[in-house]
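Practice problem 4.
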């Protein structure tokens, strides 16, 4: 049976380029696109997909906010993260949701082709593409919820607005923000942003 593929990325050229490659070079035709977390969730309701290629950061939020619901409602959906975000930062969080495929947008074409083939054929990823966490990266120890909050903090969004967006209490957000600063050893938001830039954590 041919895979039914959904590509969720906020960059139109990446979505269309990946879709075109999958159609012309690998022969897959059942491919749809989503640009936001909202579009992603709506698309998953429309039909039964077998494979989801997903960026970490979409224009309306961090996909870690929706992955738990996706896993709960669609437990058989195969998910691959295709992102510029470093795997050592998001690796442990993704493992918690059973996501074993991580493809960096910065790798060469040969590696992209190899992992895409393995993913769509439901094979285990080769050892050259592990999801690992490096202890020298200050962001690698952050829990999934902390990574969600980090995304908004780095964008300069205040505690009240983050709480409203994520439907959490303000003191919960404040507690998590304090943990982020403690774990990264950042003294203030400026230092946190400088660390994010240094370790290629995009926001």
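Answer key:
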């Amino acid at each position: 049976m041919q895979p039914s593929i959904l590509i969720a990325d906020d960059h139109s050229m990446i979505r269309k380029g990946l879709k075109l490659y999958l159609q012309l070079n690998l022969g897959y035709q059942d491919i749809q696109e989503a640009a936001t977390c909202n579009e992603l969730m709506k698309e998953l309701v429309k039909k039964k997909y077998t494979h989801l290629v997903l960026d970490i950061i979409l224009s309306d939020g961090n996909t870690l906010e929706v992955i738990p619901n996706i896993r709960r409602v669609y437990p058989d959906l195969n998910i691959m993260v295709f992102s510029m975000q470093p795997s050592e930062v998001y690796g442990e969080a993704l493992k918690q949701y059973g996501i074993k495929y991580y493809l960096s947008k910065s790798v060469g074409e040969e590696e992209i082709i190899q992992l895409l083939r393995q993913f769509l054929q439901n094979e285990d990823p080769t050892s050259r593409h592990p999801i690992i966490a490096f202890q020298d990266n200050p962001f690698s120890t952050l829990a999934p919820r902390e990574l969600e909050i980090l995304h908004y903090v780095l964008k300069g969004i205040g505690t009240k607005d983050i709480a409203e967006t994520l439907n959490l209490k303000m003191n919960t957000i404040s507690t998590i923000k304090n943990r982020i600063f403690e774990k990264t050893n950042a003294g203030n938001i400026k230092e946190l942003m400088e660390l994010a830039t240094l370790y290629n954590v995009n926001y």
